Amino acid sequence: MKADQHPAWQALRTYAETHQDTLRHLFAADPERGQRLRAGGAGWLLDYSKQRLSGEVLGLLLELARQAQVEQRRAALFGGETINATEQRAVLHTALRAPADAVTEIGGENVVPEVQEVLARMAAFSKAVRSGEWRGYTGKRIEAVVNIGIGGSDLGPVMAYEALKAYSDRQLTFHFVSNVDGNDFAEKVRDLNPETVLFIVASKTFTTLETMTNAQTARRWLLGGLGDESAVSRHFVAVSTNAAEVEKFGIDTQNMFGFWDWVGGRYSVGSAIGLSLMLAIGAEGFREFLAGMHEMDQHFLEAPLEENLPVLMALTGIWNQNFLGAESLAVLPYSEYLRLFPAYLQQLDMESNGKSVTLSGEAVSYSTGPIVWGQAGTNGQHAFYQLIHQGTRLIPCDFIGFARSLNDLPLHQDLLMANVFAQSEALAFGRTAEEVRDSGVPDELVAHKTFPGNRPSSTLLARELTPRSLGALIALYEHKVFVQGTIWGINSFDQWGVELGKVLAQKIAPELEGSGAPHHDSSTNALIEWYRREKA
Ligand code: F6P
Q1: How far is the CA of 249 from the centre of ligand 1 (A)?
Q2: Complex-level ipTM
Q3: Is 0.95 surpassed by the pTM of this model?
């Protein structure tokens, strides 16, 4: 069913057309609002009081979730039903982090034992590499790990590695090659020694152009340094669902860590795709990371909708986007370790919910996934926050922060967090022209120094960035995306939109070498011809 056919959607539309709630008024009318509009789960606190939600709107949004059958779809997700209908697949990333004795079935078969078996193999391998027992071809221990992958086979691992660097084994260095631009590979391996490098070729399909090109280049680079084909098995491992292609590439399937088609690429960081993270933080740390994800899964599964963090975040997003006219979501982590989190979320959210037809193929008549962007604070404050505060667009923000720093330097953490709280306060309440005038600002500058306020934000807080809290944060956003996709009636688990470009690139690549007339539109033909001339 289309989202705008639900009675609650229609009531929300009428409300939005007839009310203009402001955060100043909402707070003035309810002195307890800041204590009331918050919820906690899996170590995270969500303050959503600075969202433009009246009690009536909140009630209607919860109704909408019920009318869109969020609870039933959630049960179908966790129950291993084929909810990715366009690819005829179950969606069971939650099974990757289920406890060893849990039962999660697809078509009557429990998948948890297989998951645990791969985790145990990953743990043994990580231990061998970290301890120096696993040696390179010339007998030297591994000093550098290079993950080759793209999309979900890169963004999750690199984001989580950067986020948990404080917990990593500093005897090893980690590098992530994703772009088909050869400069990525060249720069990342520039200072590495082939004798001490371990390449992880991470690709669900093992056919992705970028990853296969980089993997072949890595192989040539390694053989250029070591000169012997048999070195490959000591320096290459693969993570994939496609054993046949892994073998064809020349990686021994003994050195392959598998996963399954019911794990979407952007939901795969808890699978063997997270091998680089496990090598960095150890098997115990990785278990903690999975435990945090599982804790959030349980919260999502069990908490009533009105206290359910992913549901509340999804609903506030829908209110902002479909009824208040916002088009994007700024994700602003106040932790340098989380600097890649916005990039990670871009794939998670935009590849999942960047859809314009419903599950039954009907065009939607409302906007779906938001444009997700952001940067670590406080850096963004000196770049784009001006537009958020005084620009013409409504840009809801998610602030993310921690009570404790992992590097306890005097002053820094308090100053960092003071900025989180200051930003959301300024966005919500602004500064009226009267207040500006009263502070002695000359008349001609009053308009310039006025802050309209009434700009919605949520604040997510945890005590400390740990493998567990990071796992929970990732799962929180995964489920938020799922709830929104459910309400919009779309399939959050396919990504057909990325295919056409891939097909055309395969067609154009040989044309760039050739000299015959290219067969495209006049613009593309002219661009190809320019390239041929200039590169000659
Ligand atoms: O961008 C399309 C996509 O299929 C993503 O969904 C996926 O994460 C990425 O490519 C990489 O795919 P693979 O892991 O199969 O190389």
Answers
A1: 18
A2: 0.98
A3: yes
